[in-house]
Amino acid sequence: MGKITFKLEGGGESTIFATPGETLLGLARKANVAIDAPCSGNLSCGKCKVQLLSGSSDSQKTIHIDNAQWDAGWRLACACSVEGDAEILVPDVASAYRSRMKVSDLSSPDELAVFNSLQASMEEAGLTKESGIFSLPVRMDAPTPDDTMPDIERIARAVRGATGAGKVTLTYFALKQLPNLLRANNFALRCICERREDTVEILHLLPIADTHPVCGLAVDIGTTSVSGLLVDMESGKILSKASAGNGQIRYGADVIHRIVEQQKPGGIDQLQKSIIEETILPLIDLLCAGAAIPKGRIYRMTVASNTTMNHLLLGVDANALRMEPFIPAFFHIDAIPARDLGIELAPSAMIKISPNIGSYVGGDITAGALAGMIWNRRELSLFIDLGTNGEIVFGNKEFLVACACSAGPAFEGGDISCGMRAIDGAIEGCVIDKETTEPSFSVIGGEKPVGLCGSGIIDVTAELFRTGIINGKGKFIRDGARVKFDEFGIGSFTLAFAEESATGREIVINEVDIDNFIRAKGAIFSAILTLLGSLGFSPSDVRHVDVAGGIGSGINIRNAIGIGMFPDLPLNKYRFIGNSSLAGAYAMLVSKAAEEQLLKLSKAMTYMELSVEPGYMDSFVAACFLPHTDERLFPSAKTL
Amino acid sequence: MPFIKKPRTLKPLGAVSIGTGERAVKIGGGNTLPLYFFDAKLSNPPAVGVELTDTAWDAAELPLLAKAYEGAATLAERVACAANMKGVDFVCLRLEGADPGGDNLSVEECVKLAQEAAAACTKPLCIAGCRSEEKDVELFKALAAALQGQNVLFLSAKEEDYKTIGAATVLAYGHKVAGESSVDINLAKQLNVLMTQLGIPKESIVMNLGGAAVGYGFEYVSSTMDRVKAAALEQDDAMLQMPVITQVATETWAVKESMASQADMPEWGDLEQRGIQMETVTAAACLASGSDAVILRHPVAVDKIAALVAALI
Lengths: 640, 313
Hints:
A: alpha/beta, Ubiquitin-like (UB roll), 5 domains, six-stranded mixed β-sheet, B: alpha/beta, TIM Barrel, eight-stranded parallel β-sheet, two-stranded antiparallel sheet, 39% helix
């Protein structure tokens, strides 16, 4: 048995004892050391590189490690077991996935403007901001020998008088508060109530002088990242916002790997723990600290997430989701007490989960479609959510059809060796000179570049193709000062030399990155084409396209069309709506009408399973080409 | 209801010519769906090629095959035999000896062999490599230069090496090249797009769509070819209008029906007859699916398929 010490580059260390043959990745998971492993330890992604500082290892060399790195002790954690004691350096890049992924959490003015316009259009459509939860100051007479009414009737009568409710009830928790709080506050209290039709339930009792807002929490749980809003439910005001990487990511980058992980002994608990204890609870702490509000003042939480994520969140076995015929345990479930999930909010707080409509079209999409207003338009619209899974909704006021495709994390900066979230230092736009092959960038924050975010990789791919540096397959075919080939013959393009980058390290995009991205865009486009085709429509019938997701608001639609990711439609038909899933979760939180509309919409939406669609695979292979194998679908690509 | 003949007039597809002078053969160029000779007069009948390797076959249980090459001691003599076989339109020489896992002949030795073969060959020549991608690239570069002016068809360029092979064979020395894909219409088309973007003229490209022996997933081959021909003819898809060549022999002589000896499988009967049947049936199915040229190994199969083609037109 050897003693393994993980030293984190950013500081800190963790020690664990290993039995022979255990991989470093497995040990790191046990020791709670975060190492990014999008492929969940299949030697295919090369993200889990660590450096052996001391000790000897038994490992396998892969194309992800060059000779110099190998000699310096760099190994893939998933392909390396250690004999005896060892010290392992975990570099920042291996653990930085928590912060690296682009999260649309309304932190930029652009995002906020998009969010506000979505909320405004929902209100315009009659979804008024009326959550049903409100605070009510009540003053009662103190009991006397002549007035012997018990406390509960006293407060019920007062609330009935103030609200006009037919019936007033008290939660058990409020009942326990009642006698002491009444007497300590001279029979004047602030009641936090929830109205349900003719009934008002008192959730929580507070001293009359209390002024904290009545809070709710809207959370978007993505496969890669999680973002949340703390909201004043009476005014709809956003009190604070925060985001984080999904703690489950070390169990694999995509939902299938997570489900497989859930099947291992103890897996259900482990995955639930990593989303709740490692991700949501710290996020809530952050949100509450940001607004200086105790957690106990959060009375409702809404969650928009894909079907796998909400199964894993609730600790429900998701295995049937990945096996034909792909059946989830639930589409819609009634509200669940937060305490049942170990989430400590107000004692009576309930969690509402945005309904799923299929195994791979979940509550994030129904919430997003709600916010995108596709259900309220007469013209045919397309809603595209670019995430780890790409989801497409097509329809109008009268019908809605949805499907999902697996795009991988490329749009969020994952699966790309120089990928990063759209924060300061990210290349979000790029132009390459056709003569000199010199690139010029727009970098978020305007300083030297650090890496490439989702909108940046669209531009870089489009430009490399336009300038003839890569061919339609994404392979390098032109020589230049910035084009290199490694010992395995894999080509790459240096976006920034060491002296041009902010980190002093080269920023390089290689054929593997481009290939990952081409597959991601191919999945999206072929899903659109298959969905439309199955209903007898073609892209030219679409009048309006909403693009959602954490890809960054700087997305260049012209380039996205140029590489065959989106249908060749006039640019003015496209609109970027940001993190629509979070916008939908927010709407569901503050508006009962929105919640009802969401339920209605989810019942009206038809789910199409692409994997059983005979033409999909063929359409996917055709789309894995720049711009497309059938160039007639992209007439405007020629003019790029 | 009586059958009313409604001939359809479609635009003729591209033809590719291999060989030189009077002996040149044109492959493809039809304007009908496969074998729909009642729709239009055929410009070029499907071509039948015979393949041989620089290393001799193991003809232990194949007396008819051995007889066809009887008395031929050198490669040049065997090539001459092959070219004179009944029904043969072109000869395909496979340089198996170059295989680094086998005899590992040097590029120079292979060039010498190919030159001897070309000199002895009275029919157009195809050259196939040894299936080691790295060796084939080196081999084709040298062979293209050595066989300049003979308009040879090289089998095959793939997505990984189309640039080097295409440039060396077609762009530098004016030969013809087959683009090999693995039974997928989109991959076939993508390779054609890439090769034409490299500057290779459409008239120099033949499609090797991949194959299978009948009973071994042939329905994929058949449906792929159907769709390629439909796209080429009915949707005027220029990037799928190149002629289709199919290496039938390499598929059919590698399955157990054509390999298990009679001693092991007495109930299956004579090995050679089985092999001939597998090859003939697969080749006929390929022609019906859209192959413009088939490459066979056994003289009896070559004769039968040539007779079939002659009877149909």
